[in-house]
Write the structure tokens for this entry.
Amino acid sequence: MATPRRPCSVNVLLLLLGFPLLQGAPSSRATDTIAAGQPLSGGQRLVSKRGKFALGFFQPDTSSPNWYIGIWYNQIPKHTTVWVANRDAPLSDPATSRLSVSTDGNLALHDGRAANKSPLWSTNVTTTTGSTVGVLLDTGNLVLADASNASRVLWQSFDHFGDTWLPGGKLGRNKRTGQVTRLFAWRGYGDPTPGAFSLELDPDGASSQYLLSWNGTATYWTSGNWTGHGFTAVPEMMVTDSYPLSLYTFGYVDGVDESYFVYDVKDDAVVTRFVVDVTGQVKFLTWVESAAEWMLFWSEPKAQCDVYALCGAFASCVDNALPSCRCLRGFSERRPRAWMQGDHAAGCVRDTALQQCGVTPKGKNEDRFYTMPDVKLPSDVKGVVAAASARDCELACLGNCSCTAYAYNGGSCSLWQDGLINLQDTSSTGTGGGTIHIRLAASEFTSTGHNKALIIGTVVVAAAVVAAVTAIALAAVLVLRRRRSKGPTRVKLEGSLMAFTYRDMQSVTKNFSEKLGGGAFGSVFKGSLHDATATLVAVKKLEGIRQGEKQFRAEVSTIGTIQHVNLIRLLGFCSQGTRRLLVYEHMPNGSLDRHLFGSASSNGVLSWETRYQIALGVARGLDYLHEKCRDCIIHCDIKPENILLDDAFAAKVADFGLAKLMGRDFSRVLTTMRGTIGYLAPEWISGTAITAKADVFSYGMLLFEIVSGRRNVEQRRDGTVDFFPSTAVSRLLDGDVRSAVDGRLGGDADMDEVERACKVACWCVQDDEGARPSMGMVVQFLEGLVHVSVPPVPRSLKLLGDPPNNVRFFSGLSM
């Protein structure tokens, strides 16, 4: 692959996840031409002159009996199909099928087992020459040409695209005939049948923009007009001297007979393609030999859920999640097998039918509604009626036999009929949204009688709990009063936390005499509560907090309710005057940085098994903060110093919630604090809004350090800077992850887990936050429940891995 002329910032998104494809047996023929009397069948193939492409029979999904004739890349290990002849008419057996030049000069495909002897597919052109041949070119173009004059092309596959647009092909419109060349996505990853999503030049001819549409009717993305350098809605194309755009030439031709867009590669060794994916996104991909993967340069639309009707009826779309589509409560996949292959067009179907319209059977209740908050409401509202209340809106829907959902907003009642499409679940993104009420059969809910019993039981249990808590609280107060004379341990209960005075804190910590550590937010001291067991605690003196006492108490009370095995437990606090302190459970094995970077602990060097469990524990803790709490909590400062270890070396994330406590000053503290800059996501520096994906980036940098047992940034004796993440990714791509592991382990590590950890770390530190996985996905990756593919190398790692660049960058930072 050619070297880019100069680096430039480029958004690197997600890899296109490939799928295994089985082709026929190795070919015994090595020709690029098919002629009359020489049919192609079974495991035989055409191979282009320089071996770049092959044509033959293939099976996209081994669980399906269907076979197809297609073209794929012949020199890359990942079977990637670029064109399929019989997309709508699969074969049953390649051994008895044949592709041949028929008596009328056309290329034709016949199924030997079919009762009907008509071809399943044909080039279907009128030939006036004597004999013809089919030739597979090194461009990936299959042509039907005059046998005596190969330059006379009668038909070519480049005029009949599938889902892929290769260099040299024209994607446009014939002005005389009105014919438009389109890219049609596969219906599913194992089904090349034309799907609902397509890309084409504006068919009206009024503009030079391309359109992505659903079923040819609903346009959900436009490229913007061609400027001479790029399309206005594709900013990546405007920087033509960047990598990889510097490797290509692009052009738009608006002639008398036709208008089309064409692109080509400057280096013949570059393997690239445009594809309309099963997801409905158009993607520009380049093959990276060292990674044996397709690298995604850009895709549109950026947000997966912006694709029209992606999830079909009665399903919700979740951005940055796998899978993106999920059936609503009370519904199941209409076509489960297709759903697993990425084809969600059929949507979901009710588990239980609604009651018969206008009839309420004796002894049964009418339909009810499931409330779904934090959604982007579907745009296809079928009716808006006035309603004085939410109940009136509900009754309006119940009174309409075809109404499937409603939403009420201050007197306005929106009703939906039939299948809900384009419903987006925004609960995980924190972007807010509206609330929709989904109509379900009454049997989908617990029966009324059971509800009443449940309510009564809940009230009884709640009363008993309140009484018990009150008794415990009174007993605690009495005990504390009796102990007043023994020491300054006056404690009052506030929710589940203990509220201390500053004098209490002085007594607990022996006047802050034993310091455990410190950072930008303050120092941490060891203490002991004056209780029956002399409970050890860690007391953090916060610095720089300007919140009022009432607000501070409210925020601390919220954080105190959060409990998870991988989150440090907050026991109490002190808020007196300008003094703010937090009391945590004590972690006997201290912070992770001491074990990774300091001299070996009394227990020796952390084993790989312990490290992997620490990495998994941190991921689970962050997933809980991001997804399982009432409000998403972004930690904002993930680093080894904030990962504490209990007596069994189980990881506990500390200092979560400090972003809430620090308020507006938090970002300033983070970006100026010593040692943390190496864990900050690019969006902190650029000033864009911070989301949970900033924690994902920091976690990735932490994971690199867990693997290596060293700081990510170290200065060599010669003054250059060693940036380990770049080294780790390089070794990952070279298949040498063993050399990336902490040398003190002597190679005693599970290399499959090491490789998985390095891949996950690289995914987490992608430049574009949309390309980073959620922490929930990270947990599944590390647990081995979901396969993690080889990630693209982030632009930042490429730059910082280059000594001249990293010296300039890191010399300006205080690490």
